[in-house]
Amino acid sequence: MNWKTSLLVLMSFALMNTSCGVYSFTGASISPNIETISIQTFYNNSPLGPSNMSPLFTEKIKDYYLRNTSLTLVDGEGDLQLEGSIDNYTLTPVAVSASESASQVDLTSLTRITIYVSATYTNLEDDQFDFDQRFSFFKDFDQNREDLSANEEEFVNEIFDQIILDIFNSSVANW
């Protein structure tokens, strides 16, 4: 091994040992002192949407943190604390399709489902990462090709996945 290779190996080890926290391949950057997280039920305060949104979102976000961090989930008083609510579920027309006849009404062809979630994140180790924020995401679908009642669960899951990723990135990934 020549001196350049030895120097490169030595510098690599030095860089790996000087990090500020624990970094994982998921993007989570969590202090080694933090071991637990508590995630409270995200209650559904929305007047519309499927009735199972509260347990669905709560279980999906718990699963995401457990799969992508080494944190232990506790019922309360975790080193990291996350709580919130599903605030709104809206259906909004995005595009109108012209009817084929002048005697017929123009209809909405493209509709947007938007879900809004409020989240409060508390880091007991370092309060500079705390936030109280609203997250939202949407899914557009063509009513002429996709029936809402048949596809609503899939649409809601897709929206929740993105909102959970945004909350995760804002909390433990520090993005």
UniProtKB/TrEMBL annotation:
Checking InterPro entries in the record gives:
LPS_assembly_LptE (IPR007485)
UniProt record, GO biological process: Gram-negative-bacterium-type cell outer membrane assembly
- Give the UniProt entry's GO cellular component terms: outer membrane
The domain of life is Bacteria
Q: Where are the transmembrane segments?
A: none
Concerning Pfam families, the annotation shows:
LptE
Signal peptide positions (record): 1-24
**What keywords were assigned to this record?**
Signal
The name under which this protein is listed is: Lipopolysaccharide-assembly
Q: Which organism is it from?
A: Reichenbachiella faecimaris
Organism taxonomic ancestry: Bacteria, Pseudomonadati, Bacteroidota, Cytophagia, Cytophagales
